[in-house]
Write a sequence for this structure.
């Protein structure tokens, strides 16, 4: 993971930075200083966590050598599983 502490524009820079980093096989990104969002609920933004085949394999709990065809099969099985919502008091 790379922490981006430099102030960035949410509408002009974050997407371009993330695309460039993904194209180069770089790390996931945590933007920590988003212009116009210093006092909002989105003061930080985590990006590109599933931006590569290897990250999707890791997320699904599969081994690095998993063939693409097998990944798709597991993915399709997982999205069919529904998780019931939990109602909480607050």
């Amino acid at each position: 993971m790379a922490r981006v502490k430099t102030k960035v524009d949410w509408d002009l820079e974050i997407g371009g930075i993330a695309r460039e980093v993904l194209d180069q096989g770089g790390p996931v990104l945590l933007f920590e200083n988003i212009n116009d969002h210093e006092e909002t609920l989105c003061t930080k933004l985590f990006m590109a966590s599933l931006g590569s085949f290897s990250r999707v394999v890791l997320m699904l709990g599969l081994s690095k050598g998993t063939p693409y065809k097998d990944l798709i099969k597991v993915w399709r099985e997982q999205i069919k599983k529904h998780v019931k919502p939990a109602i909480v008091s607050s």
Q: What stands out?
A: The longest strand covers residues 2-4. The mean pLDDT is 92. Helices lie at 14-23, 53-59, 68-80. The beta strands are 2-4, 29-31, 45-47.
